[in-house]
Amino acid sequence: MRRRPLSFYVLSAVFALFLAFLYGPMACVYLLSFQGPEGGMSFPMRGFSTVWFETLFTAGGRGVGDLHSSFWRSMRMCLIVAGLTALISVAAGVSFRRKYPGANFVFYSAIISMVVPGIFVGFGIALTLNFLGVRPDWWYSGIGAQLTWSLPFGLLIMFIILGRFDPSFEEAATDLGATPRQRFQYIILPLILPGVIGILMAGFTSSYEEAARAGLNIGTGNTMPMELVGLLGAATTPVMFAVGTLTTLFMFTIVIATLIIVGGLAKRRQLKLSAPRP
Asked: Which residue, of 56, 88, 154, 243, is most buried by count of CB atoms within 10 Å of its CB?
């Protein structure tokens, strides 16, 4: 058996330290969320229980605030933002397959909000609404503010997917008499569907954690991240750690489910493409 070089062990140790740095704080939050009834916000743990999870789901629980309403408000916004992100990304990606004057300007204008601090984007939207005399509310200004964060990622993903798209499939469908609608419905969309699902997931998760852009444009009521930020300063019980544990579990479930679905679709597509033709 060939002996591994010293560099392998050095790089492995660096990678292990990186994982500890990345997931160590999260592990502390998970452990402290299982503090006993007399436990506090730090180590050492005083007992082990699920009392703080029970407090979280009990109306009027200590330190819970308005997390229940904030969660469902965030869910509504996440679903809408995810759908709009996927829809606009697919439409823009298909349009960019054909070059037109000013395409580069449109592209860079669409993704520039990725490098602009979110607080400035949100402040700019709030100032514009104030100038127009429009009162901010979650269903237009809040969603619009969150789209400035999720949409650039969706566009980049779709541009990459369509950049690798084999045009021979579409050309074959055209030779067989398919209309533009049929080419998109039966050729393009099934092939890019795993990417579209990935964009939906990215739009959902990015919307769920966004606070800087939406904070000034949400109107009355908070989203989940905004409510958590407001509660952190007055947090006196591990119920906040329970919220963090459940939120992480929720997001990991979405990511894992998305990977399973995308993997299944990709495998199914590969089997269809490799199947012998009669």
From this structure: 154
Give the tens place of pLDDT for each residue, 10-19.
Answer: 999 999 999 9
Residue 76 CA, chain-centre distance (Å), reads: 14
Fold of 67-231: MetI-like fold (1.10.3720)
Q: Convert the pLDDT of each residue in 166-213 to its tens digit.
A: 888 888 888 888 888 899 988 889 889 989 999 999 999 999 988 888
Here the tokens at position 258 are: 């998305």
62 pLDDT tier (thresholds 50, 70, 90)? low
Burial class from Cβ neighbours inside 10 Å (0-12, 13-18, 19+) for residue 265 reads middle
Classified as helix, coil or strand, 70 is: helix
pTM (2 d.p.): 0.86
Question: Measuring CA to CA, how many Å separate 72 from each of 6, 202, 248?
Answer: 52, 19, 16
**CA 30 – CA 53 distance, rounded (Å):** 12
Query: Which residue is listed with tokens 């939120």?
Result: 247
> Residue 51, SS3?
helix
Tokens of 90: 């697919």
Domain ranges (residues) in the chain: 67-231
Residue 262: pLDDT band with limits 50, 70, 90: confident
Q: Are 85 and 154 in contact (CB under 8 A)?
A: yes
- C-alpha radius of gyration, the chain, whole number: 24
Asked if 209 contacts 225 with a C-beta cutoff of 8 angstroms, the reply is yes
Residue 254 structure tokens:
């979405």
Residue 83: the pLDDT is 96
27-36 residue pLDDT tens:
998 999 998 8
| Contacts for 122 with CB less than 8 Å, ≥ 6 apart | 145, 212, 213, 214, 215, 216, 217
Helix (H) or strand (E) holding 175: helix 167-175
